[in-house]
Amino acid sequence: MRGKKVLLLVAALMVMSLTLTACFNCGGTTPSWGTEGMGDVVAIADGMEITEGEVMFALGQAERIIINENIDLFPDAMMAMMFGMPADIDYDTVLENGMTFREAVGEQAVRVAAMYRMYIRYAEQNGINLTTADRDEISDHIELLIENFGGVEELLEMTAVDNVHTLGHLENVLLMFAIMENVVETVVADDARFAEFEEYLQPEDDGDEEIFGAKHILIRFEDRSEEEAEELANSILARARAGEDFDALIAEYGEDPGMLANPQGYTFVAGSMVEAFYEATKELEIGEISGLVRNDHHGGFHIILRVEPSTNPADVMRPPGLEPMTLEQRRAMAIQEKFSAMSEIVEITFLPAFSNIVIGE
Q1: Ranges of each domain in the chain
Q2: Helices in the chain by DSSP H: which ranges?
Q3: Sorting pLDDT into bands at 50, 70 and 90, what band is 2?
Q4: CA–CA separation, 145 vs 258, rounded Å?
Q5: How confident is the model over 31-35, as a mean pLDDT?
């Protein structure tokens, strides 16, 4: 079954909403979040009633988490996610823990929804609220979106990619993320409040990292036997080492669509590429071509040419969470890490209504 590309349009709308004048401990506060338009309660997590709408919105993130945890089973899906391409996912694939991909995504979606709720609960317990004016401004913002998209149906057609199908659901998503942003800004700026998140603070980046550049020709096992793939890869390797233009060989034989989007090659640091690719690149000098590098993650052989890395910092591929961060960014990450860790260990009770959620269709 084809897994949809999660466009996260709603996330873009949320960025716009976070320009609102949210404040805490202000006069005239109002309950800042509710479950109107969110559907039935489908699960209980840490005493919190999780609704169908919350789980549906969390499905995209849950899919990415499960794919990342089972990369050996979904190498092409991970590659597609990295380059913004659609991926084929069999939702009935059985994972190492015995669950199907569909079951694992469902449970993970509840945990993601629970993590979001923990921000809201923290806000309620610590007096971090949105004002009535903030809620009104979000409502006005939705009206502007309706106008810009040409109507309610047209707006909901776009937000449907994130499983948001009603205006009530959209309003609550926008409110939820405005509250989350307000919690982060408030805690990050307050040493006393941040103390309970300190243990999750990442160490400061020392800036001493080696950056690599590489182009490669990937010959997959797909549609051919491993022996045929190896024979073809060896013939291409011989031509490359004989001096043929490497870019021309990539164009003729390469089976990594990412190289089309990155003709200058990949620029990366340790941990951002699969281990076999990284280790082979590390051993090469600039301009040197590797032998055949077997990669079971991608199901094929690499022929790697090490090149000068890009000098543009935006081109550097880094694993999530390892980008150079300011203290404020590291504090924000620590808050997320704590709530995420808490959501992974909470006890979940699935209610009958959970069976009504359709995953993977």
Answers
A1: 2-203+325-356, 212-317
A2: 9-17, 52-69, 75-82, 101-125, 132-149, 152-159, 167-188, 191-194, 226-241, 246-253, 258-261, 275-282, 327-345
A3: very low
A4: 34
A5: 57
Q: What is the mean pLDDT of residues 130-158?
A: 88
Residue 131 DSSP code: B
Task: Share the mean pLDDT of the chain.
Answer: 84
Architecture per CATH, domain 212-317, reads as: Roll (3.10)
Amino acid at 85: M
Q: What integer is the mean pLDDT of 183-193? A: 94
Residue that is written with structure tokens 């990619």 in the block: 161
DSSP line for 64-93: HHHHHHTTTT-HHHHHHHHTT--EE--TTP
Residue 187 in tokens = 């805690």
Measure the N-to-C terminal CA separation of the chain; round to a whole number of Å: 8
Q: Write down the residue that tokens 């870019």 correspond to.
A: 247
